[in-house]
Amino acid sequence: MTEGPDPYLIPHHLGRVLGPNWEIETEGTRLRIRHAHRGSAFTPARRPLPWGEFLALIEEAYAAQGVRRAECLPLRWGQDTDLVVSAVQALDPLLKGGHDLTHRQGFLPQPVVRFTGRRDARGRLLDGFLTSFVNVSHVSPISGVKEYAEAFDCWLSVLSRVGLHARHVTLSGDLRVWHRREVSGVTLRFHYAGVGLGDIVLLWNANDPRRMAVDLGSGLERLAWARTRRPWPELIHDKFAHHADTDVLDAVRTATLILGHGIAPASRGAGAAVRRLTRSIPTGTAPFGLSSLCRAYHRHWETFTPMRVGWPQVTTLLEREVSRGHVAVPQARIEGPQGVGTKRQNAARSSVHG
Description:
Number of strands: 9
Number of helices: 11
Structural class: alpha+beta
Strand content: 15-25%
Radius of gyration: 20 Å
Shape: globular
Oligomer: single chain
């Protein structure tokens, strides 16, 4: 394993790009960066933005700084994970293979599926967590720590464009390097007025540290939540939040994404995720129909990526699976690898994403 970049250069470069209004504190390997005017009052936005409009603002803010939007990865991954669990998987050839190429780079708003969301003692998803969400990321090869710092400064401009002001942002974490198989890195996490939004990760191939990249990621849903502080169930499920259990809604929402991508229910592989999800949907629901939910969620996901299967067929497939009443399904490799992909799963640990 070859020695990688010096993580202790991170505070230095962040201090240079952020300027004098930011306070940088270090204690051993711990780092915390806060704005000097962080005590100013935070006022949530009055008007929630439609998802398409919200995404367009982020895309425009990135484009203004020369970061172009990339096409979504296919939801069916079939490599370290059966389904895409993080936009960082776009960097696999560079970081895991040590090759001078990537699947995608730039601004990548990637729908992902993760079964690692935090839950309460009864097993219900906590506010801020979902089984499927849009992983809003800036993924790109870089040549050094300076570009890593510049990526965070770029992100602050994006946040400002959508009404999230830098003075309420905190960046913190540990400068110790972690190692996972072919990949090493350093992770710092950012919060906005107390809400965990995501992280920025300096990554490199352990055997060839010249293959270096930055992965800055958040969740579109969490960004909207931080912006308005609207109740989480209403933000995600709109009017349906008042008429159905939110875990059931989460299951239908995620199943619609998977089925809409042409992934059929199955006992193994990517399709096993659908059958795992149907265990959360009461079998008695199917006779009353799921069309209203599937239609709404299908329309939502089409905002971010083309759907190969129309909502009527998605509804039929899902209702058929729910009617079958699966009670025991093999849990295939859906959770995520013990590799670079796990990094963003661990971000669900305390931030993203929702």
